[in-house]
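REQUEST FORM: STRUCTURE PREDICTION
Request ID: SP-0412
Submitted by: Lab K.M.
Chain count: 1
Length (residues): 126
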Amino acid sequence: MLSEAERYKEEDEKQRQRVSARNQLEAYVFSVKQALDEAGEKLSQQDKDTGRNACDEALRWLDNNTLADQEEYEHKLKELQKVCSPLMSKMHGAGNNTTSGGNGGMPGGYPGGYQRNNGPTIEEVD
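STATUS: Completed
RESULT:
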């Protein structure tokens, strides 16, 4: 039984990484779509349409490539970022014009960014 676990350990790790890459791409798509919906006057309609079309194409690709490997998901994410990152930068620049980090006035932070986790919250109970 232990030998079976060792034999499948590498395969399980590859599967975990593949699913993680897919989830990362999918999360990026939805966060960009949400940011575009909330962009208001910060972006032109053409820029919004460009971003939405790229996101819709990525979602179609995800639906048609459910068995893609990790590298394919990562490649698709990079392609989408090439299109959407300039749009997010434009939107960020049209915000509060902050030069420090943070979310630059964007609700929900910058798409694709990571939330800072300061560890568990501990509450004392009497």
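NOTES: The longest helix spans residues 2-37.
Reviewed by: T.R.
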